[in-house]
Amino acid sequence: MGRTLQNTMINLGLQNACDEAVYQLGLDMEELEEIEEDAGLGNGGLGRLAACFLDSMATLGLAAYGYGIRYEYGIFNQKIRDGWQVEEADDWLRHGNPWEKARPEYMLPVHFYGRVEHSASGAKWIDTQVVLALPYDTPVPGYMNNTVNTMRLWSARAPNDFNLRDFNVGDYIQAVLDRNLAENISRVLYPNDNFFEGKELRLKQEYFVVAATLQDIIRRFKASKFGSTDSVRTVFDSFPDQVAIQLNDTHPAMAIPELMRIFVDIEKLPWDKAWDITKRTFAYTNHTVLPEALERWPVDLVEKLLPRHLQIIYEINQRHLDHIASLFPNDVDRLRRMSLIEEGGTKRINMAHLCIVGSHAVNGVAKIHSEIVKTQVFEDFAALEPEKFQNKTNGITPRRWLLLCNPGLAELIAEKIGEDYVRDLSQLTKLHKFVDDDLFIREVAKVKQENKVKFALYLEKEYKVKINPSSMFDVHVKRIHEYKRQLMNCLHIITMYNRIRRDPSKLFVPRTVIIGGKAAPGYHMAKMIIKLINAVAQVVNNDPMVGSKLKVIFLENYRVSLAEKVIPATDLSEQISTAGTEASGTGNMKFMLNGALTIGTMDGANVEMAEEAGEENLFIFGMRVEDVSELDRKGYNAQLYYDRLPELKQAVDQIKSGFFSPKDPNLFNDVVNMLFHHDRFKVFADYEAYVKCQEKVSELYLNSKAWTKMVIRNIAAAGKFSSDRTIKE
């Protein structure tokens, strides 16, 4: 969610009044804003998307709730020590959180472990361990519309009789200390982005948020006029008309068997009716096609932690497979492919399959991604129910990502087309008629320059490097992952460095290359990539032959509040994932809206950005999805590119020989070995096209007016990428 203060003032229309009042108290509002901690309760794009969606739902006046976990420790704080990432705990609640209100009156029990007893009256889940879910509510204000929605985050609490009812008769002290075991559920966010780690505590977290939330939803339904009661029993027929639950990836997939358990075991609905209501209630958003990111929980773990849910999943699967067998008799391989249970080795539950079967709608997050979902990842399911599969291209909230972070540009736009665009971003197309307006061109360039000067001062303060504010700010900020190809950017930096040294008198368009992002603590390669970038920066930034022509900065602890500073100051946005791997991306949209140009592959929402602005107004390069599959079919041989491209060979040889790590020449052996022998993301295959495309970027940057006209065309085409539009769809 990032910080809340400024966003609240903007959405309430109070920013100027507050600025003035605080100024009269002899204080500086910006200084005050810098004191607030970020709420960093997610990892990357998926979590930030949810935050943008909450802002849009409130702004559109929808009666919507965001549910999640109130982690005591959010995403770790990243420190760079000697070029390496070091993690520190994010103790974001240390000074309290003024935006939240605990609601102990709505506390709910969540059950774990235990066993199932079957009788004539149905199944009973008994002998469970209970953890209490304590809700904390945070207001979510809409933009200037007198709407305030709620984000409800659950915190785990041990019941007061925890460990005191049984066994522990004598050891009272130990029993009280053991309360921590229950309360650990909401202690810390798992820091993996696009990677599944099958840990028991993580499954507990997933079920904890689901069980508390569904009880809350059903309580609210029963209290409303719709939950009409037949003297004793609630009639749930209207439930899907009153309640829609969107599953943000498979992380809350246990909601499907949990709702079935409530309907069948507790409310005593017949299975078929319960299943019909459940399917009509849930919809599922898929966020990634990377196989290592798909959740596949071991059956043994689920059986231990949630025995009744496993039985329900088996029953769902049985009926699902019976249906497929009736449509495709004797096609055993299809049954194997479509089962919710994966056999072979340890039996696992494929949570994506559970979500597809248990939902009435499934969506990808950009056109190209939704196509891949339909034709590759879940093709069997799409063949069965093509109408179930949809696209909802991601978006960003223009309140935080323009008004809040770039007031200069927002005001400039408002002068030309009025203020209505903030609620209807499609109105940005009106800027097209100013693309040749010399005054407007100069004003847009001036706002960008002011943002760059301000950010350059921040960098000089934090990193003690002299920044040339007229250099091109070339920015690559996102989670560090092989598929996002920060390594390809690194190879380009080395190539630029070598060109400057080879011919120091030749014209070189000065650049400040800024790379930032966190690596999952257990992701060795990602951490090596950070070290490599810092090692290269060390050499480049201290070479007198380079001077101010090229500077490299690794931006420490990238987070929402830092994104709000760097994005408005960016000239060139790096969106260079291997085609077919970035489901959508949303940083790409933030840069576009804030007057940066994009260098990128035809991947994720880049494709639609090029469609909206015209491909000639983005710097598109490299393999398309079809080229990647063709290369896979032929077999990718990295050595070929190394042998054919002298500049690539030179850069790789420098990394390999220890040019950037003289104290430990073998430091980057793992990186080089990966690039040659198991690079799933084909960095070398796109290197040449990338470097050539970067030359075109530099050439255009020399012509300030032509550059700025292209910027205006991009801003004018950014309207589609409002999260308001996504939510309306």
Automatic annotation (TrEMBL):
Keywords: Allosteric enzyme, Carbohydrate metabolism, Glycogen metabolism, Glycosyltransferase, Phosphoprotein, Pyridoxal phosphate, Transferase. The lineage of its organism: Eukaryota, Metazoa, Chordata, Craniata, Vertebrata. One of its GO terms (molecular function) is glycogen phosphorylase activity. Homodimer; enzymatically active. Interacts with PPP1R3B; recruits the phosphatase PP1 which dephosphorylates and inactivates PYGL/glycogen phosphorylase. Pfam families: Phosphorylase. Belongs to the glycogen phosphorylase family. It comes from Platysteira castanea. InterPro entries: Glycg_phsphrylas, Glyco_trans_35, Pyridoxal_P_attach_site. Allosteric enzyme that catalyzes the rate-limiting step in glycogen catabolism, the phosphorolytic cleavage of glycogen to produce glucose-1-phosphate, and plays a central role in maintaining cellular and organismal glucose homeostasis. It comes from the Eukaryota. This is Alpha-1,4 glucan phosphorylase. Its EC number is 2.4.1.1.
